[in-house]
Amino acid sequence: MKRPIIITLSLVLAAALCAAGTVAYLTFLRPADNPPADACAAEGARPRVVAAGASMTQGSLGADWVGSLRAAFPAYEFVNAGSNGNTTADLLERVDSDIVACRPAAVTLLIGTNDVRNSVPLDDYRANLRAIVDRVKSGTGARVALMSLPPLGENLDAPINRTLTGYNAAVKDVAAQTGSDYLPLHERMADVLRHGARTSYGFSFPLAFTVAAQHYLLRRTWDEIARSGGRELLVDHVHLTDRGGAIVTELASGWLTGLAKA
């Protein structure tokens, strides 16, 4: 009697481990679609747009707004230079290999959420961001757009969002100082979040894994998962829901359309 039970439990455990491994790979280990390592090694037939940043840009946990742009603008080749967990210091280290080497026509930068979460000093953040933009501009002829950082959690009055205000001021300042374009992502999201009661920041890796499992194993949309936790734009207090991703797509689309007409 014991042997069938042991076999059954072993099979259940193996299936659970396999499912967990699948979720971990799809969420944290899988490379972005058309990453710099693939795209930048070859001559591009179309003008390239490099979207650089961290996990919100990589798009494996939360909405893939770079993929949405790729579908909407077939005349461009979109390179996803997002990397999970990156700070501005990390992006600065790979700016030559992942942005400049791609010879882009346009570059979007959405970077800094992890600087805020890791308490990177504001002066260091500002200096890193300025160095990234300066290197892109000196090494390419690309137009550059800096996006302000989304809220952390959906309660705009929470302490971490008061801290975030200084970082977003730095984004705006660097854009002005370097002649880059500024895309008001935080402002657009804040317009939505000002209405109704909102959940405060409460990100954790167990929550992120649970959210990812619901999406990849149960096939729930990012919006459905967020709503079940009382959230609207941020599926796990950090990463974008489908609606949140649509705001980024709309801003970037308007910018790219303007470039094409210029």
TrEMBL record:
Q: Which domain of life is it from?
A: Bacteria
- Could you say which residues form the signal peptide? none
Matches recorded under InterPro entries: Ester_Hydrolysis_Enzymes, SGNH_hydro, SGNH_hydro_sf
Q: Which Gene3D superfamilies match?
A: SGNH hydrolase
Under Pfam families, the record lists: Lipase_GDSL_2
Q: Where is the SGNH hydrolase-type esterase domain?
A: 53-191
- Protein name (database record): SGNH hydrolase-type esterase domain-containing protein
* Source species: Nonomuraea monospora
